[in-house]
């Protein structure tokens, strides 16, 4: 039937301003269906499209009203259309090619469940429809279609007209349409990508191909360097879907039946766990060895592929693991009661009651947990007394036991209990607490991955890892090694590493003047104080994790995991500002403090030292210590590079003289920092200055070449001295060490002086970190090895008064005597050893070293060093009995 006369004017209006105008009354409408229905209202009754009901005879002018009448009055059901999907759900979701087998090859390769859409079945008709003369809804639809086709007025939309006459063009491809009813269906199918229309997909790229394989890396014209070539795929923050038609169609039809049919587990998964974000997507799963795995309830079906798009290199496997619901904390902690020591089952039960909630139930403590609460408070007091000064990451003015999370209290108690475990009962309590902490940390992380973004949880994880590192348990060493990656990854995800910290508060005074009301000013001041505290705590946590990484690197002789370029740009503030008891005291102190005291620039401090300048006098001791640590880390990186060249595995020449000059320069800079320190006048200076001393002297020992390496090798192999192969290696190392001592006696005595200085530092302050324990052991090992393997003196040799080379605060006369001793030799004393060259002096050093290391109860790793020192005693006894009877 021809189109009405006003068709072209309607089409013109449609193109012009997006509206359709009625030629009869001038009414403007935006939708073609509304205009068609409106035009029917101008027609006489004889020309209107009337839809009669085949069941009751009623007539309708709208098909939606007619269909609703059929469903409600006659209880008619239309047979559901069979979907066009023929591939399995998993291949459709992952955009993979499906061979439509049962199961398909793609699902069978990864052992995934392969499911296909169920075949649609005709819905049974009601009894009324069966006995009806023309009794099916399909007849009604056929009748409706015939009326629409034969009507006087056709749909007045260009796309609808072309759909009747021929194919419709969608984005450059042709999709044939049978009737006007298929237009909406086709648009819906196009939105879901069901039709085979051409879309502008990005070209496929092989994920395993080298992204720079086509570029000449050494072509000067390209201007490529390592900074440009390095690509971090895990740090991509852009939307990987791009314009591929993945996100928007899914969101546009998220309520449609096709989505619910294809992925029945998506909605339920979205309710049980949030979708991963940039910081939680790669949250690691913690595994604690040797611990019973708690029973968990599987919430997801077997084919649980909730990720709508995987990484390119995960295309052949399921990247999203099954989701589990963690059991209650109390249930997991009580699992170990049956396997614990019966004598301490009651204490275990009480401690479980305290640590089962997010916060300690102090107001509701009953009689059964009072004793455990008192023990926890003693542990916390020990933590603040023994360890807090080493890593002051806790803000003591605002810290409160009632508002502190339980996991952080447990980690602090762990170190406090290790510092006070002097007898059998206290050690048993420490074992109970360590067992509970090993359960709580992974369980809290597994319950919600957002805990990896919580500063309190990360502090607790760092403190417990420090304890594991010094526990002396090989199994816990592995836990500490794994936890380093978790800590560093979490800090990178939060932006604490590689970020800029605004620890200074310039402009705060002007902000405070805006508040005339005293209450408003105090409230704003307290808010600024808390905000500054949070930033400073993040900064201190980053430096504490760096210290943990540095300690682990020193103990394992491996490179650190934190790159120096990732370190915060600012150093921690002065301890007096950090411990200000109130917001008013904090504001008053920071007014007169320099920028160095409120948080000095790390780059500025390092440049000043390298240029030969002194560090700022108001630089806090805590910051001085970490400047020394960074320089020592640089030395360790250079040493690692030298080790690669020395092995010769790459066929490269030995390191150049410039490399050695850099090491010498860094050692000289460390010496300037050490000599710029005055006598400590506070506990903060005592702790940090002692650690700076030991870092400087140990750096000279570790960068001395073969001598220190041979001493450490002998001490390490002595732990397995019963092995014949180990004894042969020890004998060869001893002969080589004796040759080194004889060939360069002046260098040997210089190393002995550095070792004696470490012993002198330990006489003033007992070290409170596992790394310091290692340095103390290395110092005793160097002194003992010098007395054992140095060239023997003639029997008639007599010396003058011995020189005490362990004085760390020597005057000018003592320093001149020490310099003379290093050049020409002579008699020297350290501690209880009056002459470190004599046999009596060696035995005195062995006894003193074993006693000093055994007295460090906080770090059980010292027991291993004690056994290594006793090897020298056994060897001396063997020589006295067999060689010199």
Automatic annotation (TrEMBL):
Location of the region described as Disordered in the Swiss-Prot/TrEMBL record: 118-138, 249-281
Pfam families (alphabetical): Fungal_trans, zf-C2H2, Zn_clus
SUPFAM superfamilies on file: beta-beta-alpha zinc fingers (SSF57667), Zn2/Cys6 DNA-binding domain (SSF57701)
This protein's UniProt keywords: DNA-binding, Metal-binding, Nucleus, Transcription, Transcription regulation, Zinc, Zinc-finger
Gene3D superfamilies referenced in this protein's UniProt entry, alphabetically: Classic Zinc Finger, Zn(2)-C6 fungal-type DNA-binding domain
Domain C2H2-type: 20-47, 51-79
Annotated Basic and acidic residues bias: 118-132
TM region(s), chain numbering: none
Domain named Zn(2)-C6 fungal-type: residues: 87-116
Single GO biological process annotation from the record: DNA-templated transcription
Keyword Metal-binding belongs to the record: yes
Superkingdom to which the source organism belongs: Eukaryota
GO molecular function (one): zinc ion binding
PANTHER family per UniProt: TRANSCRIPTION FACTOR WITH C2H2 AND ZN(2)-CYS(6) DNA BINDING DOMAIN (EUROFUNG)-RELATED-RELATED
Protein name: Zn(2)-C6 fungal-type domain-containing protein
Source species: Fonsecaea pedrosoi CBS 271.37
């Amino acid at each position: 039937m021809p189109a009405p006369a006003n068709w072209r004017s309607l089409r013109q209006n449609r193109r012009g301003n997006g509206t359709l105008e009625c030629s009869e009354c001038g009414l403007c409408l935006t939708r073609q269906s509304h205009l068609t229905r409106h035009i029917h209202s101008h027609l006489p009754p004889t020309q209107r499209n009337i839809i009669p009901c085949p069941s009751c005879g009623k007539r309708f002018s709208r098909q939606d009203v007619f269909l609703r009448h059929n469903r409600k009055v006659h209880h008619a059901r239309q047979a559901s259309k069979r979907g066009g999907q023929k591939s399995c759900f998993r291949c459709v979701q992952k955009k993979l090619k499906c061979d439509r087998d049962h199961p398909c090859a793609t699902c069978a390769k990864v052992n995934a469940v392969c499911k296909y859409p169920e075949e649609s079945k005709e819905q049974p008709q009601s009894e009324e429809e069966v006995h009806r003369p023309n009794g099916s809804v399909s007849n009604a639809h056929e009748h409706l279609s015939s009326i629409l086709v034969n009507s006087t007025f056709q749909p007045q939309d260009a796309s609808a007209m072309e759909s009747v006459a021929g194919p419709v063009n969608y984005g450059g491809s042709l999709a044939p349409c049978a009737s006007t009813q298929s237009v909406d269906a086709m648009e819906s199918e196009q939105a879901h990508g069901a039709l085979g229309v051409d879309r502008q997909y990005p070209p496929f790229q092989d994920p395993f191909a080298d992204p720079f394989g086509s570029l000449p890396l050494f072509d000067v014209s390209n201007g490529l360097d390592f900074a440009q070539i390095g690509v971090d795929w895990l740090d991509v923050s852009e939307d990987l879907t791009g314009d591929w038609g993945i996100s928007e169609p899914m969101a546009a039809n998220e309520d449609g039946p096709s989505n619910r049919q294809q992925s029945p587990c998506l909605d339920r998964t979205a309710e049980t766990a949030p979708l991963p974000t940039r910081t939680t997507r790669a949250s690691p799963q913690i595994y604690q060895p040797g611990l019973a795995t708690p029973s968990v309830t599987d919430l997801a079906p077997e084919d649980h592929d909730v990720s709508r798009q995987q990484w390119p290199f995960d295309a052949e496997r399921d990247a999203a693991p099954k989701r589990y619901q963690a059991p209650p904390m109390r249930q997991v902690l009580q699992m170990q009661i049956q396997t614990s020591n019966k004598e301490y089952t009651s204490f275990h039960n009480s401690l479980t009651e305290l640590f089962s909630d997010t916060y300690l139930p102090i107001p509701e403590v009953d009689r059964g947990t009072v004793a455990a609460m008192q023990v926890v408070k003693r542990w916390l007091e020990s933590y603040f007394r023994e360890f807090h000064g080493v890593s002051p990451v806790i803000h003591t003015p605002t810290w409160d036991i009632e508002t502190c999370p339980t996991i952080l209290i447990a980690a602090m108690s762990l170190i406090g209990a290790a510092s006070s475990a002097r007898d059998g009962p206290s050690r048993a309590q420490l074992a109970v607490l360590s067992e509970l902490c090993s359960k709580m940390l992974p369980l809290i992380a597994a319950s919600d991955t957002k805990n990896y973004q919580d500063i309190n949880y990360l502090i607790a994880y760092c403190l417990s890892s420090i304890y594991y590192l010094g526990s002396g348990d090989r199994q816990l060493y592995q836990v500490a090694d794994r936890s380093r990656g978790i800590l560093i990854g979490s800090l990178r995800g939060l932006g604490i590493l590689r970020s800029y910290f605004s620890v200074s508060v310039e402009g705060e005074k002007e902000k405070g003047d805006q508040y005339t009301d005293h209450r408003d000013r105090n409230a704003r001041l307290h808010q600024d104080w808390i905000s500054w505290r949070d930033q400073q705590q993040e900064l201190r946590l980053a430096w504490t994790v760096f210290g943990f990484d540095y300690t682990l690197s020193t103990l394992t002789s491996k490179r650190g995991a934190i790159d120096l370029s990732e370190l915060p740009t600012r150093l921690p503030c002065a301890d007096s500002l950090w411990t200000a008891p109130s917001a008013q005291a904090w504001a008053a102190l920071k007014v007169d403090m320099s920028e160095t005291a409120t948080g000095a620039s790390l780059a500025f401090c390092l440049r000043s030292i390298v240029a030969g300048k002194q560090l700022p006098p108001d630089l806090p001791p805590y910051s001085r210590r970490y400047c020394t640590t960074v320089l020592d880390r640089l030395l360790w990186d250079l040493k690692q590079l030298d080790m690669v060249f020395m092995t010769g595995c790459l066929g490269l020449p030995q390191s150049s003289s410039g490399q050695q000059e850099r090491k010498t320069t860094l050692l000289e800079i460390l010496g300037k920092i050490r000599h710029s320190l005055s006598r400590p006048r506070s506990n903060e200076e005592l702790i940090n200055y002692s650690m700076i001393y030991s870092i400087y002297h140990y750096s000279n020992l570790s960068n001395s070449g073969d001598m220190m390496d041979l001493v450490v090798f002998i001490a390490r192999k002595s732990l397995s001295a019963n092995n014949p192969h180990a004894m042969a290696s020890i004998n060869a190392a001893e002969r080589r060490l004796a040759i080194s001592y004889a060939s360069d006696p002046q260098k040997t005595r210089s190393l002995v002086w550095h070792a004696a200085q470490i012993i002198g530092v330990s006489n003033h302050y007992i070290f409170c970190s596992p790394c310091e324990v290692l340095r103390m052991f290395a110092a005793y090992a160097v002194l003992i090895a010098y007395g054992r393997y140095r060239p023997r003196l003639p029997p008639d040799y007599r010396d003058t008064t011995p020189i005490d080379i362990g004085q760390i605060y020597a005057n000018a006369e003592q320093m001149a005597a020490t310099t003379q001793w290093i050049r020409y030799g002579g008699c020297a004393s350290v501690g209880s050893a009056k002459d470190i060259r004599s046999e009596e002096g060696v035995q005195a050093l062995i006894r003193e070293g074993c006693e000093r290391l055994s007295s460090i109860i906080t770090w059980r790793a010292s027991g291993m060093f004690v056994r290594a020192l006793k090897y020298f005693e056994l060897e001396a006894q063997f020589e006295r009995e067999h060689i010199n009877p």
